[in-house]
Sequence to fold (303 residues):
Amino acid sequence: MTVPIGHTNTVVVGLDGSDSALNAVRWAAAEAARRTAALRVVHAELPLPAAAPDLSGTARQALHEEAMRWVRAAVSAAAEFAPDVDVQVRVEVGSAARLLLDESTTAALVVVGSRGLGGFTGLVVGSVALALSCHAKCPVVVVRGDDPAPDGPVVVGVNGAPENWYVVDRAFEEAEARGTELVAVHAWRPPLATARIAESVGVVWSELDLVREATVAQRLESCADRHPGVEVKTYVVHGSAAHRLLEFAEGASLLVAGARGTGGLTGMMLGSTSQSLVRHASCPVLLVRPVLAEQVRDARSAR
Fold:
């Protein structure tokens, strides 16, 4: 499995005490075992309000004890799924987003749940997942669905964007590591004006589908050469990319998507397709940022 340049083979998972976070811990533990990696459980204790001084330290101690109860439960859940994985713990007072972004500078992967108590997994329209999706220095997985170890295919969207090659290559890698097939989906929806012109000159949409199938095949070819053992099923379909990918993700083990974001830790933006996938997918979603593609491309060029 790819580890970003200069990073360690560690899977980091955010913890906030919710059932969703515990499910993320189980998924992350299974992923760490698959990678022969360490698992790092990270929790950010809430800072006390400045207007409520804790002179006796009682409130701070209570929050810390609660955090450690959550950590012990997480370590136990991880051991249940991956007893041989080395589990590390980091508990600090501060911002959950900043703590996980800091972890992303050295981790191979950061994992969070899809909903929670407002710390790590107050998620998808909240600041933490958006911050990670837009600014993390390693890939991010948002664990959705109730099965902590799904075994279906890996699904990836294929498009013509320059950075999509790395998203596709990462999907091949994930399918290879899981020993499962890869489902590559290209969805397109011609503008209404184009449709009218095509109809007036007798263009058959199936012919345009064949052109797109050839383009998709070309995009997949170089990745397939590096992963010859992966069986690939390709679909060129009509409709919005988000809706069709969500359909194909039913029963999948992982949905791989690109993540392009802008802005600081507040006022962040994630592409509409990626947002829809993270909000509604029935399986874990792996988000890969374009900057990571540049790192891997540079590393391969230097070999």
